[in-house]
């Protein structure tokens, strides 16, 4: 089973894979669409929701004229001004606490923390306060905020150990929080709109390597449901369950394997919590072979939860052991030559799929 790990495969390094069109063309056929980036899609969602609902406002470090750490909020300050695009002190606990207070009195704040790694400074406000208040008040209080945080790395985009982690498992473990990790511009816009309109606190994670990735997005208003997986590619021989940037590697692997006559189904876990167990289970029962692909560390990571869903819902249908392809359990190094060995890549996914086929 050595071929199922990342250790014996060649990394793609800083090469961005040329993706098959199935993933890029997200807008439904016949719907007027435009091609924009993942970053632009999030910005459009913020702008449209701020125009739609005057209760929506933004808070975060340097999100005004500077446009945020990765430029997502650029131009919004000029359009909405300092009352609705608010720069904050460098105090993550204060940012989330103020947003929780604003949400409790009827506002709908969208807050930005520069990197998910910094959110540990606000864990009390996120996990002990905001996540619990609706339950503790018997539903009398709502906390409709969205917390945006870039995460992850890859291809030289990491900025070493304190700025590059994938921490969706932290927040998926907390009852009361919803956790979103979109993989495409289409998903990013539709899920951001849904998150803003939700009456619960939503952790919205943005894989920073995806900011420049482009795709077709409808010109009209649309919202995608939270709590649903998306079948990015139907198949019958193997199921790949993935999230975030790893969906792109999964799709490329499926494209490569299709040339060998293997039909791969790709499930995008675009909402990490609540988890759409039914879609994962149905796919596993159909194919009988499952590969789980996650950028997060292997130990206690999201892939492990997906694997248990497969075991509970499809064990008797499995024709091979479930295989994980994940990030290594290590702090993220700064040097590209070392960092490239940390992340899963397309060859690793292809090798894992071949291993379950040949079991």
How does this structure look, described?
The protein has 359 residues and is an alpha/beta fold. It has two domains: 2-23 and 227-357, Rossmann fold, CATH 3.40.50; 31-218, Rossmann fold, CATH 3.40.50.970. It is built from twelve helices and 14 strands. The chain has helices spanning 21-24, 38-52, 76-80, 92-104, 123-136, 168-172, 185-197, 246-258, 277-287, 302-314, 336-339, 346-357, and strands spanning 33-37, 56-60, 85-87, 108-112, 146-151, 178-180, 202-207, 214-218, 230-233, 238-242, 264-268, 271-273, 290-297, 323-327. The protein has a seven-stranded mixed beta sheet with strand order 3-2-4-5-7-6-12, with helices on both faces. α4 (92-104) packs parallel to α5. Mean pLDDT is 91; it is low at 1-17.
Characterize the overall form.
Answer: globular
**CATH architecture descriptor of the largest domain:** 3-Layer(aba) Sandwich
Number of individual domains: 2
In whole angstroms, the N-to-C terminal distance is 9 Å
Tally of helical segments = 12
Find the count of extended strands (DSSP E, 2+ residues): 14
Q: What is the CATH C level class of the largest domain, in words? A: Alpha Beta
Mean pLDDT: 91
SSE ordering: HEHEHEHEHEHEHEEEEHEEHEHEHH
Report the radius of gyration as a whole number of Å: 20 Å
> How would a textbook summarize the main sheet?
7 strands, mixed
CATH topology of the largest domain, which one?
Answer: Rossmann fold
């Amino acid at each position: 089973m050595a071929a199922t790990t990342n250790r014996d495969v060649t990394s793609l390094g800083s090469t961005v894979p040329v993706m098959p069109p199935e993933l890029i063309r997200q807008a439904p056929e016949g719907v007027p669409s435009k091609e924009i980036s993942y970053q632009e899609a999030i910005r459009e969602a913020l702008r449209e929701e701020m125009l739609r609902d005057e209760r929506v406002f933004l808070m975060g470090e340097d999100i005004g004229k500077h446009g945020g750490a990765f430029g997502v909020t650029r131009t919004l300050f000029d359009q909405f001004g300092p009352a609705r695009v608010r720069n904050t002190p460098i105090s993550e606990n204060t940012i989330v606490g103020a947003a929780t207070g604003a949400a409790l009195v009827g506002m709908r704040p969208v807050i930005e923390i520069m990197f998910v790694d910094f959110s540990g400074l606000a864990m009390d406000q996120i996990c002990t306060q905001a996540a619990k208040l609706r339950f503790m008040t018997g539903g009398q209080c709502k906390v409709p905020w969205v917390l945006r945080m870039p995460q992850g790395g890859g291809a030289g985009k990491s900025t070493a150990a304190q700025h590059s982690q994938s921490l969706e498992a932290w927040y998926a473990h907390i009852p009361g929080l919803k956790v979103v990790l979109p993989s495409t511009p289409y998903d990013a816009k539709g899920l951001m709109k849904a998150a803003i309109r939700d009456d619960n606190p939503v952790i919205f994670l943005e894989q920073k390597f995806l900011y420049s990735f482009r795709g077709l997005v409808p010109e009209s208003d649309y919202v995608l449901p939270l709590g649903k997986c998306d079948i990015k590619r139907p198949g019958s021989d193997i199921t790949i369950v993935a999230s975030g940037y790893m969906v792109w590697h999964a799709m490329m692997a499926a494209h490569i394997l299709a040339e060998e006559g293997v039909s791969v189904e790709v499930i995008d876990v675009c909402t990490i919590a609540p988890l759409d167990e039914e879609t994962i289970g149905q796919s596993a029962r159909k194919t009988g072979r499952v590969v789980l692909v996650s950028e997060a560390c292997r130990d206690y990571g999201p892939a492990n939860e997906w694997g248990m869903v497969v075991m509970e819902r499809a064990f008797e249908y499995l024709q091979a052991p479930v295989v994980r392809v994940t990030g290594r359990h290590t702090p993220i190094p700064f040097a590209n030559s070392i960092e490239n060995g940390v992340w899963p890549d397309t060859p690793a996914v292809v090798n894992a799929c071949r291993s379950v086929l040949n079991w």
